[in-house]
């Protein structure tokens, strides 16, 4: 398994445009934090849907790489999200991911997204990643 610090360095180097912090990492799970700024808000003062989708996708990828190792060519093949309530504009977004299936060619997971400190999720996502064949 890849360490949390090793994986954070990987993301900081390979995806510098996608700033987030890995809060915790375990077998088939990950929790990440996305700091929210004014650039992430849409009219009406809420975190935009594309930002929430980015965080959900990133949480899935972190959990996958934390479980399988640095499989950099794994790709998202499906991402479905349900927006449940308005995220707080003044709070970070926390994504809690759990992998439901880890196979040889496919990984399926679910992500609950929260405004930091709030008990109810703002969104719920499911996603599928394709794993490249081992050569």
From TrEMBL:
Residue stretches spanning the membrane: 58-81
Nucleotide-binding among keywords: no
UniProt xrefs under InterPro entries: HotDog_dom_sf (IPR029069), PAAI_dom (IPR003736), Thioestr_dom (IPR006683)
Domain of life: Bacteria
An example Gene Ontology CC term for this record: cytosol
Pfam families in the record: 4HBT
Protein known as: Thioesterase
Organism: Pseudomonas abyssi
């Amino acid at each position: 398994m890849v360490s949390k610090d090793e994986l954070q360095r990987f993301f900081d180097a390979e995806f510098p445009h996608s700033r987030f912090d890995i809060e915790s990492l375990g077998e088939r799970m990950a929790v990440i934090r996305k700091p929210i700024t004014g650039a992430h808000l849409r009219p009406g003062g809420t975190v935009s849907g594309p930002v929430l989708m980015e965080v959900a996708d990133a949480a899935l990828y972190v959990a996958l790489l934390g479980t399988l190792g640095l499989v950099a060519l794994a790709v998202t093949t499906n991402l479905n999200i349900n927006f449940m309530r308005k995220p707080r504009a003044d709070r970070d977004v926390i994504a809690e991911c759990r992998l439901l299936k880890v196979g040889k060619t496919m990984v399926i997971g679910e992500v609950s997204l929260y405004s930091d400190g709030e008990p109810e999720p703002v969104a719920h996502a499911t996603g599928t990643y394709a794993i490249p064949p081992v050569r």
